[in-house]
Design goal:
5 strands; alpha+beta; 99 residues; single chain
């Protein structure tokens, strides 16, 4: 399976980005504060662990945030680690935020 092509939807009512993979739901939860988006939690079901789903999901979410010109505060440790490993995404961080 090509994880780069992961289809991600923004479930506004649940305040989470979602991807269905093999019948399972992976998600990144968020909340807004002012003009910032706070990514609070990344969750991948055990059946999908180790397949690169979390990484692909976070990457797609970051592209969405970039398209929407949102400033990011990564409260989720997984998202913060992803950005540390892929410093090109630091451009999305809200002013004064370091990972």
């Amino acid at each position: 399976m090509e994880t780069k092509l992961l289809e991600v939807i923004d479930n506004v009512n649940a305040r989470q980005f979602e991807a269905k993979v093999d019948g399972h739901l992976a998600k990144v939860e968020y909340m807004f504060g002012g003009n910032k988006i706070f990514l609070t939690h990344t969750e991948v079901p055990p059946a999908l662990e180790g397949k690169g789903i979390a990484s692909a999901l976070v990457e797609r979410v970051l592209y969405i945030l970039e398209e929407r010109r949102l400033k990011l505060v990564p409260l989720c440790p997984y998202v913060a680690t992803y950005i540390r490993k892929h410093p090109e995404w630091k451009k999305l961080l809200a002013h004064g935020i370091n990972v």
